[in-house]
Write a structure and sequence with these properties.
By secondary structure, the chain is an alpha+beta fold. Helix content is about 30%, strand content about 25%. The strands form 6 sheets. Strands 3-2-1-4-5 form a 5-stranded parallel β-sheet. Strands 12-15-18-22-19 form a 5-stranded antiparallel β-sheet. A 4-stranded antiparallel β-sheet has the order 6-9-7-8, sandwiched between helices. Helix 7 runs antiparallel to helix 8.
């Protein structure tokens, strides 16, 4: 098969790395890709939101399977676009259509969906610029802290946790009147703050059947001890020690099954990944959010543990035959430490030469924000590398991943030194 992956991050490098191992994979392309994907595939200089150019690349390169990595093209309707091309109706696609992608594209849609199908989640109300006075009054009686979420895609920055009513009201006003997040904040979901421990569960759906992939926990804050600004993710661990068999059964019964039943009842033929962000509260799962794609950097710890041929899994997802395939998972622990540019998640410089990559041993360096330039690999984003190690214990996987983060060098490099340490303490 000829396979095209859309995206340019660590998630897409992990997809390409895994697919390159499959005998089903003949020619592998990534658009636009990065310096890491170029090592295992052919990069195409095409934006993942340029649907006509993607379609032309599909025709030119006789693509059989299209895998959509990021959320933006899914919400923008890339699947719908391809379904409207008469000569490409047989193209296999992994990713939901625009309706299904609203699970991530609209926080209000996903909250209403959860309420309709009895999926446990935090209590909430949604407000717009015309109902801002009601929103401010609602905040007066709300428990603290309180969570405010921009309805649309906001590059991972649209969630604010307010510790007091003054901050909550000014945030709501900034979002609705001040357009703090632009069109993404035209609606704001005001939500109960849940106290618990967070993890993510990943589901593959072919529209009818499903498979649950390995769970993961990621680390969003820039600073150690979960301090500082939110980022796209500073590291991840899989499996998650506090997600025992009993808890994961609850997730399947109370969240996964009703989610898929709801999608079918709404006429959404969902073929792709469902990322379920969960909070474990007193032993019970509550859904914080859905994503319509795999997480990043969670993909960099989930995929290395999957032993089933990944191309076979993707084909079965697109063809509707997931019931015919078994997912085999390695018992090893995978840990990834994300190395980021100085200044991230605020302003940062690009073009810093990355060195010492060749010294890494028994660690996979997934490129997240890199490019090739004048014979060097240079930084090209905030998150630069996800350094993934596997081992028979969490402690050893943490040690190997952190050692790799110390080894790699570029000007301004920063990373968290506590990825996975909380889970070691939890296990103790």
């Amino acid at each position: 098969m000829n396979i095209l992956i859309l995206g340019s991050g660590g998630r897409e490098h992990a997809f390409a790395w895994k697919l390159a191992q499959s005998p089903l994979s003949d020619k592998l392309f990534v658009a636009p890709g990065n310096a890491g994907t170029a090592q295992v595939a052919t990069n195409l200089s095409i934006s993942y939101n340029d649907f006509p150019a993607i379609a032309e690349a599909v025709r030119t390169n006789a693509i059989d399977l299209l895998i959509v990595g990021p959320e933006e093209p899914l919400v923008n309707g890339v699947v719908d676009y391809f379904r409207q091309q008469p000569d490409l109706v047989n193209l296999l696609i992994v990713g939901p259509d625009a309706h299904g992608a609203q699970l991530e594209g609209s926080k209000d849609f996903s909250k209403q969906f959860m309420l309709r199908y009895g999926i446990p989640t935090a209590s909430s109300q949604t407000f717009t610029a015309t109902t801002i006075e009601s929103g401010l009054a609602y905040l007066d009686g709300h428990t603290l802290p309180v969570v405010l979420k921009a309805d649309g895609l906001a590059a991972g920055k649209g969630v604010i946790i307010a510790e007091n009513i003054t901050d909550a009201k000014s945030t709501l006003t900034d979002m609705l009147d001040g357009q703090k997040f632009g069109a993404a904040g035209s609606k704001v979901v005001v939500e109960q703050f849940l106290r618990g421990i967070e993890l993510s569960v990943f589901v593959l759906s072919d529209g009818v059947n499903y498979k649950i992939l390995p769970e993961a926990k990621d680390y969003k804050r820039i600073g150690e001890g979960d301090t500082g600004l939110n980022t796209g993710g500073m590291g991840a661990v899989s499996p998650v020690v506090f997600a025992n068999e009993s808890f994961l059964r609850k997730v399947e019964e109370k969240v996964v099954k009703p989610t898929l039943t709801g999608l079918q009842k709404e006429g959404i033929v969902y073929k792709g990944f469902i990322f379920i962000g969960l909070m474990k509260v007193n032993g019970e799962p509550y859904v914080i959010e859905y994503n319509a794609r795999m997480g990043d950097p969670e993909t960099e710890v989930v995929l290395p543990r999957i032993q089933t041929d990944f191309a076979e899994l993707m084909v079965a997802t697109a063809e509707g035959t997931l019931d015919k395939i078994a997912v085999q998972v390695s018992p090893q622990t995978a840990v990834t430490t994300v190395v980021v540019s100085g200044g991230y998640p605020d302003d940062y410089e690009k073009g810093k030469i990355i060195s010492e990559l060749e010294r890494l041993e028994d660690v996979m360096a997934f490129h997240a924000g890199t490019m090739a330039h004048n014979g060097h690999v240079v930084t090209n984003g905030g998150r630069v590398l996800a350094l993934t190690a596997q081992a028979n214990s969490l402690e050893n996987a943490v040690r190997k991943s952190q050692e790799a983060a110390r080894t790699v060098q570029f000007d301004g490099k920063q990373y968290r030194r506590d990825i996975g340490l909380d889970l070691i303490r939890y296990a103790d």
